[in-house]
């Protein structure tokens, strides 16, 4: 297998099939654009198990993605896509940066859900972009911008329903999209507690990476409990 790319949480390998890649989830966790970094044995396994199951749940509810199948506890196969260099964030409740940026109350309900674009550029600290910025930078056409928003809101609807079944609330999440060989825009990268804020709204207990960002608990225990909740749905 040829290593194509190594990021903060995953390694991407080429396979014998031209349009299929193998993703390996790493036992690493970062926050603050890499300013906080640790190795946690078992973290890659949990991320792969959770992300694979969420991708499958998405497929079962009509959301297309690059996911093919999980092939081991830390690996999955995906279709190759051309990643659009945008992070698409959907906010159902105010939390994180938007609270400080706009002076909102924590967990203030966003009606309708807010969709934001961020430029995937570590050296620029992933700045927020308007639709006009996205078009000006050549990252997406006006039609593609609307398609990205529509896809993100559909994911929000499906994922929110899944969280409700687990008696949790989806605060916000970020996703990435790519274009497949036919030019279709599909969900890519991953969906997991690494990329979402998920809270028990009664206790305000986090089931996401905020426990690591804010040093409020064990990330491995949190992700294990989250995965057990997912398994209970089956």
UniProtKB/TrEMBL annotation:
One of its Pfam families is SAICAR_synt
- Supply the source organism for this entry: Salinicoccus cyprini
The source's superkingdom equals Bacteria
The pathway it acts in is: Purine metabolism; IMP biosynthesis via de novo pathway; 5-amino-1-(5-phospho-D-ribosyl)imidazole-4-carboxamide from 5-amino-1-(5-phospho-D-ribosyl)imidazole-4-carboxylate: step 1/2
Q: What is this protein called?
A: Phosphoribosylaminoimidazole-succinocarboxamide synthase
> Which reactions is this enzyme annotated as catalysing?
5-amino-1-(5-phospho-D-ribosyl)imidazole-4-carboxylate + L-aspartate + ATP = (2S)-2-[5-amino-1-(5-phospho-beta-D-ribosyl)imidazole-4-carboxamido]succinate + ADP + phosphate + 2 H(+)
* Keywords annotated in UniProt: ATP-binding, Ligase, Nucleotide-binding, Purine biosynthesis
Q: Which PROSITE patterns match?
A: SAICAR_SYNTHETASE_1
Q: What is its EC number?
A: 6.3.2.6
Report the family membership: Belongs to the SAICAR synthetase family.
Biological process (GO) annotations?
'de novo' IMP biosynthetic process; cobalamin biosynthetic process
Q: Show where the SAICAR synthetase/ADE2 N-terminal domain sits.
A: 3-228
The broad enzyme category this protein falls into is ligase
Q: Where are the transmembrane segments?
A: none
State the PANTHER family in the record: MULTIFUNCTIONAL PROTEIN ADE2, SI:DKEY-6E2.2
